[in-house]
Write a structure and sequence with these properties.
The protein has one domain: NAD(P)-binding Rossmann-like Domain (Rossmann fold). Helix content is about 50%, strand content about 15%. It is built from 8 helices and 8 strands.
Length: about 240
């Protein structure tokens, strides 16, 4: 079934740069009414704060009368070995990547249930499916987000609400330069990665086509294939890469 986007009211978190910014643009280009939310937006919205999220939802409903799509994109990264990851930073990362998404979901669900329609898009990662060295906290947050997505999909199946998980691979955004990093370079490859506009296009397409899950990039799909069928070979490759950086 196809889902037409013109006139739909779309909230995009983490919309100040990277995937969030491109996603807001992509929805707007298809005729949607976009409400960009970030700590830099006006008014600012920090997904770690209950009052900010509630204000975002209530003001959107007051101005537009409904919320058709929520894109949970806000997130931060961390590169650190398990032994070296400061607990305070791990807690904050989980607060943004997991609890921030949960907070937004809980805020929009009453609106969408009353409407009997809506879509919730969680932006995970290929690392929602496989873990890599020195990214344990980030991987844990994205694994948790995938579990939340799967459970939520079952819970709202009779409410007319679609729940979609987007799992980008390596994407060229400021994410890597802004992450918490304890040793090593911000990027472990000289390749620039896919443009965030490609991820944005996949998000919009998933909403239009009412897809369940989308894994992006060839290497992302290869990694998930190897994780399922050749896990020891994948471990060897990841260990080898880890010791080269």
């Amino acid at each position: 079934m196809q889902n037409a986007l013109p006139g739909k009211v779309v909230i995009v978190t983490g919309a100040s740069s990277g995937i969030g910014l491109e996603t807001a643009r992509a929805f707007a280009q298809r005729g949607a009414i976009v409400v960009p939310a970030s700590r830099r937006s006006n008014p600012p919205c920090d997904v770690t704060k209950d009052e900010d999220v509630q204000r975002l939802v209530s003001s959107t409903v007051a101005q537009h009368g409904r919320i058709d799509i929520l894109v949970n994109n806000a997130g931060i990264g961390m590169r650190a070995a398990v032994a070296d990851a400061p607990m305070s930073d791990v807690r904050y990362l989980m607060e943004v990547n997991f609890f921030g998404a949960l907070r937004c979901i809980q805020a929009v669900l009453p609106v969408m249930k009353q409407q009997r329609t809506g879509q919730i898009v969680n932006v995970g990662s290929v690392l929602s499916l496989l873990a890599t060295p020195r990214q344990s906290a980030y991987c844990a947050s994205k694994f948790a987000l995938r579990a939340l997505t799967d459970a939520l999909r079952l819970e709202v199946a009779r409410d007319g609400i679609d729940v979609i998980l987007i799992m980008p691979g390596y994407t060229d955004t400021p994410f890597f330069d802004n992450m918490y990093r304890y040793g090593g370079p911000p990027r472990i490859t000289s390749l620039r990665g896919q443009h965030p506009a490609k991820v944005a296009a996949a998000i919009v397409r998933a909403c239009e086509r009412r897809q369940r899950e989308v894994v992006l990039t060839f290497y992302g799909r290869l990694g998930t294939f190897m994780k399922r069928f050749f896990p020891r070979l994948l471990d060897w490759a990841l260990i080898r890469t880890h010791h080269q950086v």
